[in-house]
Amino acid sequence: MSLLLKNGLGLLEGKLSPMSLLLQDGRIQGINLPIETADQVIDLHHAFVSSGLVDLHVHLREPGFTNKETILTGSKAAAHGGFTTIGAMANLNPAPDTPTRFLKQQQLNREAVVKIKQYAPVTQKRAGKLPVDFTALRQAGAFAFSDDGSGIADARVMYQAMQKLAKLGLPLCDHAQDMTLTAGGVLNAGPAAKKYAVPGVDKVSETSQIARNLVLAAATGVHYHVCHVSTKESIDLIRFAKSQGVHVTCEVTPHHLLLDETMIVGEATQYKMNPPLRSVQDRLACVAGLLDGTIDLIATDHAPHTAAEKKQSLSTAPNGIVGSETAFALLYTTFVKPGVWSLTQLIKWMSTAPQTLFQLNHVGQLHRGDPADIAVFDLKTATKIQASDFLSKGHNSPFIGQTVYGATVMTLVDGKLVYRRD
Ligand SMILES: [Zn+2]
Hints:
The protein is α/β, with parallel strands linked by helices. Helix content is 30%, strand content 22%.
């Protein structure tokens, strides 16, 4: 079965150039071949054709919290956003913390319409006390380890986990947060926390953990990846560690690039996430950190919740917003269209860098012979972000109602259409 995607525009040596792709049996057979026919032909009408996006930070909620999201709905939301591979976090019930549970999780993940890389937790039940069997979980298929949702308070647990993972050559992805310093915090300790009269989350809760963990990472040689950096000081620490040769990488979320605490308006629970939106200076430091190479990639931290949960008070509503379906369009509109970033940079941070740094071989490359994991975006037409278009069960987004460019036209995984705009 062959499929010709013709009349697209793709990035060739950093420039948007005419591109057609011939796909054969799920792989890329050729780029810009002089042919006009195939078993199936789709005219892209000059839309932007890219390697599929890769999101290393997604919460799919199944098993345990399927009122918020399922593997099917979460993966459909990812496909709607142009993602062809996603890293699924382990804060599930049960958490995939034994080989048996992990293999069961892998079975469940077959429901997905995109490729799932499954995280295993660092500690049993993600409780921060007893390490998992890293070797057995690696054998079961874990690509990385994370207790995301919680920080690991015990330095000895963290140090030993890093020693073990350094030997195994797998990354430790850290939700860097000292829970003794965040306890009860709702918004960043700043003007918004004051305005809404809720307890603040001091930025040292993040930076002090990163400082400690960078020291431990340097001593062990592990690949230490910091999830969702949110403060200028975190980025400064990581920049210094990189200059000293520490094997550290980090990610930033679209919302920490697009929003800060001064932008919280209307229903404030739609702006409540962990780590919280920080100051203007922190937001600008996130943008600068990407540009100077300190921040390696963008990941959404897609965190669906039900409407009822987000309707609670600001203090009791859960943390997190959905992100899969809006990430590319929001970042394209805000940063690429006005010329702050190039399209090549955005694709690097959302596709090439995550797959290279996490060695997700042959996922999402536009090279002959590679799997046909492809996303097509409409960069010309303005569209409005609407909850009714979301395929996620979660509608908890502060971006609903915004006008953006870069809506997804179609997404293909192994040459198969997994999303197509009506
Ligand atoms: Zn997290």
